[in-house]
């Protein structure tokens, strides 16, 4: 799964959640989350994506790019 950084940031900002708050909810490093939002992390492990989705109360599909077949 590839993270959709634009979607992650849009959902986080729509919920008025700071990057620091997302860090606290996920336990992930704030720098890592920032790089994920900016598209610098292309192939993260599945677990961080699940943690971000859970913290934002959305499905993993909402924050990942669809696989092209």
How do the helices and strands line up, and which of them pair or pack?
Layout: H1 5-14, H2 19-26, H3 30-37, H4 46-56
The number of distinct helices, counting runs of at least 4 residues, comes to 4
Helix content: 40-55%
Q: Count of DSSP E strands?
A: 0
The low-confidence parts are: none
Radius of gyration using CA atoms only: 11 Å
Structural class: mainly alpha
Mean pLDDT: 93
Fraction of residues in β-strands: under 5%
Textual characterization of the structure:
- The protein is mostly helical.
- It is built from four helices and no strands.
- The longest helix is centred in the C-terminal third of the chain and has 11 residues, at 46-56.
Can you tag this structure with a few keywords?
69 residues, mainly alpha
Give the gist of this structure.
The chain is an all-alpha fold and 69 residues long.
């Amino acid at each position: 799964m590839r993270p959709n950084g634009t979607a992650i940031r849009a959902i986080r900002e729509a919920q008025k959640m700071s990057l620091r708050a997302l860090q606290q909810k996920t336990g992930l490093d704030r720098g890592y989350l920032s790089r994920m939002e900016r598209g610098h992390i292309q192939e993260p492990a599945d677990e961080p994506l699940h943690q971000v989705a859970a913290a934002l109360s959305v499905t993993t599909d909402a924050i990942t790019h669809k696989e092209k077949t």
